[in-house]
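Appendix C reproduces, verbatim, an entry submitted by the partner laboratory led by Prof. M.T., so that reviewers can inspect both the input and the predicted structure.
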Amino acid sequence: MLRFKILASVVPLLAAAVFARAEIGSVSHPCIALGDTSVELTSLFWTAGVHVAFTEDPSRATVRVQITDDAEAADFTVVDDGLGSEPESCQASPSTRLVSIAAQPVDGGQVIYLSTEGPADYRIYVRSKSFSQREAAALIVGARGGHRHLQAASL
């Protein structure tokens, strides 16, 4: 009888987990492809291997990302037509690197200062209906692993 009670309580939990996984897996997240690897933002903090946070204080930042209006001057450019324009190379695979945006800095995680002025470790150009500037900055920092230590940053 005890086994039946345990089984009866576990079955609904398993069904809920499968349903939740299907819902989570069907949501499209910003993603970029880098060679054989893709880097994708995730809202599931515990699944991410890389965590980034943002700050308004440049002295707290470990990485500075500049938003530029010149696509040719950018290290990372995102231009798309919106939903449905993701390349097929961003499909989930074992080599997908998951990045989460944390509300507060995480131990060992990068802290990004996003601005329109230099100096900067990365420069991004974003004209997208599906990527925000913050998401693009999180993806490039997550993909590159953080600070580049530029000798000549933009001014």
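The chain has a mean pLDDT of 76. Additional entries are available on request from the coordinating office.
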